[in-house]
Structures are given as C-alpha cells and as structure tokens.
Amino acid sequence: FTQRRFGYFVMGLEPGYWWWELLVKRLDLLLTGLVAGSSFAPDDKAKVLMHVMLSGLFLAAQARCRPFVKENVGLADRLE
Q1: Which residues contact 22 (CB under 8 A, 6 or more apart)?
Q2: Closest CA to 31 of 43, 23, 63
Q3: Strand partners of residue 68
Q4: 32 with 80: CB under 8 angstroms?
Q5: Tens-level pLDDT at each residue, the chain (80 residues)
Q6: How far apart are CA 59 and CA 52, in angstroms?
Q7: How far apart, in Å, are the Cα atoms of 61 and each of 14, 37, 43, 45, 65?
Q8: Which pLDDT score, from 0 to 100, does residue 49 have?
C-alpha cells in the first residue's frame, strides 16, 4: 500500500536517498516561492540573482549526493 501510494517520490532514487524528493525538492520549491513572493530583495534584478544562487546551491547538492540510481550510466544524475 505504501509503495503504491508514495512510490512516485522514491522510484529512481538510491535506497539511501529515499528522502530526496520529499525534503530537498520541497525545500527548493519553498525557498523559490519565498524569494519570488516576498520582499527579501525589493529589486527584480536582486530576485533573479537570488534565484540563480538557489539553483546553483541545489545543483551542487545534487552533484555531490548523486541520489538517482545508476541505471543508464547515471543519466538522470546529469540531466536533473
């Protein structure tokens, strides 16, 4: 039952990274939404810069952890 209901979140991930989609990707969405909808940076250029920095941060986290299974020579790790 659990695999059928929540399998979408963990399919394609290494067993040790079952939490990746639930925690890291949702944190990414939350922070992106906060930057877009708040006044952390009142200037639009500053918001774009903050979005680029967030993207770089989460890209670096994914490159370091490589949470996806190694099928197809790690193609999902490079494309995500």
Answers
A1: 9
A2: 23
A3: 13
A4: no
A5: 466 776 666 777 888 888 888 888 899 999 999 988 888 778 889 999 999 999 999 989 988 988 877 765 555 556 65
A6: 10
A7: 15, 24, 27, 24, 6
A8: 93
Written in H, E and C, the secondary structure of 54-71 is HHHHHHHHHHHHCCECCH
Distance CA 77, CA 68 (A): 6
Rounded CA-CA distance 45/70 in Å is: 38
Q: Cα(3)–Cα(50) distance, rounded to whole angstroms?
A: 36
Reduced to 3 states (helix: H, G, I; strand: E, B; else coil), residue 13 is strand
Backbone Cα Rg of the chain: 15
